[in-house]
Amino acid sequence: MTVQANPQERPAGLGDLSLAGKTALVTGGGGGLGKQMALALAEAGADLVLVGRRRELLEQTATEVETSATVVPGDVTSEETLAELAGLAGDVDILVNNAGLAIYHKPWLEQTTGDWNETMAVNVIAPFRLCQVFAPSMVSRGWGRIINISSIYGILGVDTRRYASLGDFDVPAYASSKHALIGLTRYLGCRLATTGVTVNSLSPGMFPGTEQNADMTESELLFQLSHGAPMERVGVTDDLGAAVVFLASPGAKFVTGQNLVVDGGWSVW
Length: 269
Prior knowledge:
- The structure is a single chain.
- The protein is of the alpha/beta class and 269 residues long.
- It has one domain (20-268): Rossmann fold (3-Layer(aba) Sandwich), CATH 3.40.50.
- 35% of the residues lie in helices and 14% in strands.
- The protein is built from seven helices and seven strands.
- It has helices spanning 32-43, 55-63, 79-86, 113-141, 172-191, 219-226, 241-248, and strands at 23-27, 47-52, 69-73, 94-97, 144-149, 197-204, 259-262.
- It has a seven-stranded parallel beta sheet, with helices on both faces.
- Helix 1 crosses helix 7 (241-248) and helix 4 (113-141) runs parallel beside helix 5.
- The model has no long low-confidence stretch (mean pLDDT 91).
């Protein structure tokens, strides 16, 4: 039996991790893990489109790369922002849906429908809408990479005892949204499988050293998080770089609908 490869995809080789000539759009690309992933994509050769609410952070990231970087301040839950981004759809080869929200300083019994709606709007609906914006032009060109940033709490329950030092720590909406994002990834991975566009998710483990997780860096909690993984450490900023570059690369052309976990073994116990 002869298997015909997608004619838009050239034969794979070790050079197929290069992103030269590609453009990657990263939401939440101004800080934290989004920034680190954007820097890794640029190091692999990709031009960047950086989207986020704070212009100054996006511009700072843009100054740290040697490839070109376009800054688009905006809210990914806003249809106005989506309409602005639609004008770039013909140029974007790689979409990284990284922007996320977690509401956790409130007991789960006190969390409201509004809390859930806000979380779902950022973590699930915005990635879906961005896929609607960018996937059609990727399909028309026969090449594209969509990477949804989920979490290990998209595949696991949450042992809130580990976070006792934070007081009330309940994340029902966050955990549900990250499970949903992996479900969306699998659905679209199947839906677009014959088009040359792959859809995968990337699930980080414990990365408390970002500005979003500044309250998770006290010593007792760091000890708990470090010893929650077989590697006995938390993630550091460059631990996701190679993973996101691989999923974005031409070499990942036979990988779709998958969830790549980068957690030092946390989910293996």
